[in-house]
Amino acid sequence: MKKEKNIINLGAIISISFILAFMYMLNRYTTYVADDFNNMFIDATRRISSISDIVETQILRYHDTNGRTVAHTIVQLQLLLFNKTQIEILNTIGFGIFIYLTYSMSRISDHIDSNSFIYKKELSSFILILLCFFMFWKFTPVFGQDFLWIIGTANYMWTSILVLLSLIIARRIAMKGGVKRNVFITFIGIILSFLSGWTNENSVPAFMFVLLYYIIKTKREKYDGFLDLILMFTSSLIGFVLMIFAPGNFVRLGAFPESPYFIPRMLNRFDKMFLYFKELLVVLTILAIIFLLLHRILNWRNNLEIEIFFLAGVGAYMAMIMSPTFPARAMISTVYYFIMVILLSLSYLREKNIYAFLIISLGMMIYSGIYFGQTYPDAIKANITYHKQYFGRESNILDKKKKGKLENIEVTALPAENKYMPAYKLGEVSKDKEFWINKSLDRYYGVKSIVLK
């Protein structure tokens, strides 16, 4: 008699609940930061108050700022439809979804015959999901910007969710040979791929590279779904073209003075990228290479999916050479591809030797968990302090406004030196009242000028 599948995975539920609890505490003490204020307005005077205002804003930005219409629509929808408390809850849930989708890209039980028992499945889910979270906590260069800052979550977390959902659909088609075609899932995959293609300049080439691998694999192995993957690839390419060739991208280039000569310009960008890599990503890269090699030694006849993930991560990083600026938050695509390499390698190891899997994965989870335990209290403390100072500064501005003082309102700077803060390494109020952040606060609070004390 065939055993019924256990639908509820208690290990996954426990680990995700743990993650949500800790992330909500961080989200609870975030504030509006930098570009968040700008995204509440259409222009210098009009505040966004309807969906049509968002459409108008995105059309304007497409022509004078950049082509990231999908990401900026997400953030403006958040700011329009939800209050701050609701955004905190929404972004906490979004982070849980992001972690679970990253983990899901490492699951192989749907793609190969598994000899693991249910308890092993639940235990491995618990370990891998927590390890996934701890690795993002440790290796994300500017964690607060990617996962706590409101516009940062829209640009990097929520857009990554779109990419991962698209990849999961494509992987289901390519890796689960002979799966019955589902027209509805294919339609969703095409829509998601189009949106994914219109997300970020560096994440899309990596996404399309993985899609191309799945297309080739499906064609060679004569699986159903080859046409579906072609349609997904094409829709993502259309989204990418719409983003890259936005007139606003060419306007924005003028804001970053560089050498007019191609080779010196590229060399200067490469030099900055190398320094960034050495400072922020070298340890994670070495770990990914070690696990890639371990997997290939143990499964030398297996498909090339792990290598493709690794190359996609490298490609996501190198694609930024085409941009005049490389904010550390844009490295998140490389981070999640490298983490998927590690998790997928561990999943295959589990199928080979459950005891080796437990020793290695538990060891990594405990080690990274200790780091989390050491750094999380400081992260909470830093965010609580910033939160208190932020509202203290706001009370001062509103009090001066109430008394009729609308010009040259002096405020103190808000330090943000912990990478688990949304304001970490972002701009702050200046002594120059014409500085863009000063002007953003002027508009938000309805005063003439705010200056740094």
From TrEMBL:
Task: Identify the keywords attached in UniProt to this record, alphabetized.
Answer: Membrane, Transmembrane, Transmembrane helix
**Highest taxon of source:** Bacteria
Membrane recorded as keyword: yes
Query: Is Transmembrane helix included in the keywords of this UniProt record?
Result: yes
Give me the segments passing through the membrane. 7-26, 85-103, 123-141, 147-170, 182-198, 204-219, 226-246, 274-294, 306-324, 330-349, 354-373
**InterPro entries named among the record's database cross-references:** DUF6056 (IPR045691)
- What name appears for this protein in its UniProt entry? DUF6056 family protein
Q: Which organism is it from?
A: Peptostreptococcus equinus
Where is the organism placed in the taxonomic lineage, from the top? Bacteria, Bacillati, Bacillota, Clostridia, Peptostreptococcales
